[in-house]
Design goal:
two-stranded antiparallel sheet; eight-stranded antiparallel barrel; mainly beta; 11 strands; elongated; about 5% helix
Length: about 220
């Protein structure tokens, strides 16, 4: 996270502190976008004696949602939302005999993010710059509890930070946004399976590229 902070501060330093006085204090709209999720697996040993797991490449998916936004200060807004996301990750299970089995883990998630937005007009450009920060709570609605080899908890708490821009086009206000969500809670569900004894914490991190629309 420390690597992202200087970039966000430099980005916002280019923004002016003023804001369009005609902008309403409340607005609402919807968003669509692409998602990338990674599973960060912590093993008790680099080469465990016995079965263990590793995470495959990041999983990709999509999401959509609706949101409402209130202006708190001339450059500060709060935006709660309800979103539905789908991603899928692959976990590799390494058995004692060296055989590897790949299992798909689907994530159909209902999310409630709460974001704060710092806005400012970019110099010499007809757009507003955005810095986004806040958090989200989500639950995985995928049925079947994944599989019997190892289970993951459905709940996820994320800490979010991102950047974006806002501009008018054909009567619509369009906001492309890039948001990184850092997984705060351990989603490893210990059920005393053979693989559980080599795995410590598992975190789910997300990167979202989305576009928000409002009138």
């Amino acid at each position: 996270m420390k690597k992202f902070a200087p970039a966000f501060l430099m980005f916002f330093a280019l923004c002016a502190s003023g804001q369009d006085a005609e902008r309403p204090r409340f607005s609402y709209g919807y968003s669509i976008g692409a998602e990338m999720q990674s599973l960060n697996v912590g093993l008790f040993s680099e080469r465990p004696n016995g079965p263990y797991i590793t995470s495959d490449q990041p999983g990709f998916g999509a999401g959509a949602g609706i949101w409402g936004q209130w202006q708190l200060l001339p450059v500060l807004h709060v935006r709660p939302a309800i979103q539905l996301h789908y991603t899928q990750n692959t976990i590799r299970f390494w058995a004692d005999n060296g055989e590897v089995e790949r299992r798909q883990y689907p994530f159909t998630e209902l999310e409630i993010p709460l974001h704060f937005l710092l806005t400012g007009a970019l110099r010499r450009m007809p757009v507003q710059g955005l810095i986004i920060f806040g958090g989200r709570l989500s639950a995985n609605l995928a049925t079947g509890r994944q599989n019997a080899l190892m289970q993951l908890l459905p709940e996820r708490l994320g800490l979010d930070i991102g950047i974006g821009a806002s501009f008018r086009q054909g009567g619509w206000n369009i906001q492309p946004e890039l948001i990184y969500s850092y997984g705060m809670n351990n989603v490893h569900d210990f059920t005393n399976s053979p693989y559980d004894w080599s795995v410590g914490r598992i975190f789910r991190d997300r990167l979202s590229l989305r576009i928000s629309f409002s009138r």
